[in-house]
Amino acid sequence: MSSPDFTSLGIANPVLQAVQSLGYEQPSPIQAQSIPILLEGANLLGVAQTGTGKTAAFALPLLSRLDSTQKTPQVLVLTPTRELAIQVAEAFQTYARHIKGFHVLPIYGGQDMRGQLRGLQRGAQVIVGTPGRILDHLRRRSLNLGEVRALVLDEADEMLRMGFIDDVETILSETPNNCQRALFSATMPPAIRRVVSKYLGDAKEVSIASKTRTVERISQRYLMVQGRHKMDALTRILEVEDFDGMIIFVRTKSATVEVAEKLEARGFSSAALNGDLSQALRERTINRLKKNQVDIVVATDVAARGLDVERISHVINYDIPYDNEAYVHRIGRTGRAGREGQAILFVAPKERRLLRSIEHSTGQAITSMDLPTGEQVSNQRIEQFQQQILKTLEATDLDVFRELLEKLAHDQELSMTDIAAALASQLQQDRPLFPKLAHIETGDRNRNADREKPLREPREPRSRERREPRESARAERPERNREPRKQRDEHGEFEMVTYRMEVGKNHGVTPGDIVGAIANEADIESRYIGHIKLNDDYSTVELPEGMPKELFDHLRNKVRVCQHPMKLSLVDSGTSKKPSSKGKAGKEKPAHPKPRKKRS
Q1: What residue stretches are annotated with the Helicase ATP-binding domain (predicted)?
Q2: What is the radius of gyration, based on Cα positions, of the chain?
Q3: CA dihedral sign of residues 235, 236, 239, 244
């Protein structure tokens, strides 16, 4: 019997339209079996490994059954981590792109409570959240589950392992008795079975075999690298790795274009693939990859779904996925037709927990890799240079050029070796054979210690309600006016003034990230970057007074810290001066301290 397609499964037309525009063709086994059950309104128990497509398995049918006239929450999805909550919420938004007036709201710990309260007041048909924060809203009475029609427990065994199972049961007890329930889990430990028996007693069970063997054919490595160094690290890897076709995965549509353009500028044949492309352009890009007209495609998860190109030898996760399922989908683009595949994952030090979660989910350790050295890059370029010369010798009639160079050697009394060396030097200027590469901090020195920490989301304190106003007031408290601080260097004394940037602790930013962004983008030596103060939603930094206007505008409008816009602004201290286009008047040296020398 032939496999069903999405049209025959019975999902609503607006949802089907979104699925077709995404390029989905055949539903995965868990989707084919789960969607009809959930469309009927029945309870479902899904036993499936990560990477089987279960997000669409529950999102598509539940969106098909939404009541457009009801603005209160109709669907609640519980996830073990904030990262998965974001991923699932984004999936719902994508599948509901043709449903008018649709709103989905992710709710998780570590996020500003006031923004969540505003979102709940505006209304959302679908709520995706972590158990701890959902409970906080239930206690505050800011979330009412009285009209919820369906509840999904995603990765239930992870919630059990992280200690959330009691919270999950409390939330389940707050939903109406006639609420449809679906539970998805890779394993079925006794505690999960007890929840199923109590709350999903009549559930229909769908069990999907593991895809572990597909992952086993893929060699998986990771590189611990800070975000600001990722492009340089990627370039070195591309120089040294022997790849045929490659997909580089990023999180956002804009990043696909940005990374592809930077790779093109560095001499790599690449193209962007994202959801903003029409179906015709998407197909054209994939065909170019198949026909060796482009070697690298930079894509988002959604754009690469269903992509099957045999020549893809490597997958690079430039941005680590928040969802373990997405990781398996990504690396599954390589290792096709029984071939060996290569998967490389970029991990920032603060993302170690996501790395460990992926390893736990796939049941495989991911090997740490070393960044290619300058010597390795140089050796690879020399080998390619030599191959290029040999091909030219074999394929081209060089008699005219031989005569020209022999005459030059005779007239100028030069050796042919010297002439060849001069030509080689000229030829390699755009791509030096002996490059001087910038130092990049890599490594995972704390990994073993980190493995001993429990893999779970930080729990919200029970007394959050009493603490919240004080914390909010602290976050909004303006910087106190103070006299500009003075510093001295070999050029003399200069004043430091305070700037504000719209990134803080909630964005995962560290003082090192701020120093790195300013030092790299403004070309200021770190000794000229003063005191940094991190707050929840913003930070302040002391910089030398008299910053040139064009540099200030660049930092304000274009520079990002940990993928978030810096939005630099000057804190009014009563005495500090605005950024200047001329520097300090009456002084020969610029107001901005001498920048560090650029490294080649």
Answers
A1: 35-206
A2: 28
A3: negative
- Nearest CA among 485, 506, 488, 505 for reference residue 496: 485
Q: What is the pLDDT of residue 306?
A: 58
pLDDT above 70 as % of the chain: 79
pLDDT of residue 280: 77
User: For the chain, which domains are there?
Assistant: 6-207 (3.40.50.300), 212-371 (3.40.50.300), 375-427 (no CATH), 478-570 (3.30.70.330)
Nearest one of 366, 389, 384 to 242, comparing CA atoms: 384
Question: Residue 405 — pLDDT band, cuts 50, 70, 90?
Answer: confident
Q: How far apart are the first and last CA of the chain?
A: 62
Identify whether the C-beta of residue 38 lies closer than 8 Å to the C-beta of residue 111.
no
Which pTM does this prediction carry?
Answer: 0.47
Cα separation of 394 and 156, whole Å? Answer: 63
Number of CB atoms found within 10 A of residue 31's CB: 26
Give the pLDDT confidence of 447-491 residue by residue, as tens digits: 444 443 444 444 444 443 433 443 333 333 344 444 556 555 545
Q: Kindly report, residue by residue over 547-559, the tens digit of the pLDDT.
A: 778 788 888 888 8
Sequential DSSP letters for 259-299: HHHHHHHTT--EEEE-TTS-HHHHHHHHHHHHTTS-SEEEE
Cα dist. 177→66, 142, 145, 150, 484 in Å?
18, 21, 11, 11, 64
Contacts of 166 by beta carbon, 8 Å cutoff, 6+ apart: none
Task: Give the whole-angstrom CA distance, residue 361 versus residue 513.
Answer: 30
| Paired strand residues for 433 | none
Is residue 592 within 8 Å of 579, Cβ to Cβ? Answer: no
**Distance (Å, whole) CA 339 – CA 534:** 48
- Show Cβ contacts of residue 383 under 8 Å, excluding neighbours closer than 6 positions: none
pLDDT tens, position by position, 206-246: 988 655 445 667 899 999 998 888 998 898 898 888 888 99
The neighbour count for residue 139, using CB atoms within 10 Å, is 12
d(CA 466, CA 541): 31
- Among 532, 531, 538, 533, which Cα is nearest to 507's? 538
Q: How much is the pLDDT for 525?
A: 67
Burial class (CB in 10 A: 0-12, 13-18, 19+), 590: middle
CA distance 556 to 544: 16
For 279-435, list the strands marked E by DSSP: 296-299, 312-317, 341-347, 367-368
Contact 318, 293 (CB under 8 A): no
